[in-house]
Amino acid sequence: MKTVLVTGGAGYVGSHCCKAFARAGWTVVVFDNLSRGWREAVKWGPLVEGDITDAKQVGAALDRYRPDVVAHFAAYAYVGESLTRPEIYYRNNSFGTLVLLEKMQRAGVGKLIFSSTCASYGIPVRTPIDEAHPQAPINPYGWSKFMIEKMIEDFSRAHGLDAVMLRYFNAAGCDPDGEIGERHEPETHVIPLVIEAALRQDRVFTVNGTGFDTRDGTAIRDYVHVCDLADAHVLAAGKLAAERGVHVYNLGTGSGTTVRELVEAVGRISGSKPRVAYGPARPGDPPVLVAARGKAERELGWAPRQSGMDRIVETALAWYRPRL
Prior knowledge:
By secondary structure, the protein is α/β, with parallel strands linked by helices. It contains ten helices and 14 strands. Helix 5 links the parallel strand 5 and strand 6.
């Protein structure tokens, strides 16, 4: 049985990936400081409480468990916060990954799956966005992930690190079994916010921008179910077992949903119309972010099987209803 060390495995995407690895027969070990993750989300193996920026803690976990693969999710991921507190993003995300890469090299652990982001592309010059699209981040969060990608490439050239870098588009939905779900404090993700506006009388969802050049004037995003993302990580581990080098894949559906369409879907499926307000577009917000998913399909055999908007909303509603 192979072992995967999952940094940030108590968080939203990380915990869903832990479940997918466990179902695929892997031994799962979570490394997380619980600053933005949840102890109760660690269900498929031991939790090592530690900080990704602490070299001793990272090294001790690698030495103890000797993982075959590291799946690296530990990161801060609020775009707005990164603009006001860039220092914590470069320290936690970028420097923390440097610590991890150094300790992996010293421990002889040579395979990494990295949770990257479409935010590294910045404002798209073409859509759908493929892996060869220029990378020009527009916020410290995107830059911190872009810097990590470059570090991984350099460690591969210098030290033989093998890696798969997965650039997510909009992670969404929750575990259909209800064992884990999406939980952020504060909550900034659009689907939970729309659900709150539908199920709670004191909440209003603000649509940021209605003048985009899209089919209904609101921004289009590519929502991919978190369980589909999790499946991609298991497939990435298989890729690393079979092939050397660094491999990059977008994870999205190849189609987009407008904000108005999302609000309509939540209202229709929940049976309660969300309360909506309208505000100006946020600075730098692209009108359309949609992935070209062909490379992941061809090389990983991956397909977004649960990423229809109705399925995403159904699983999210099932998670949130008893908690609101």
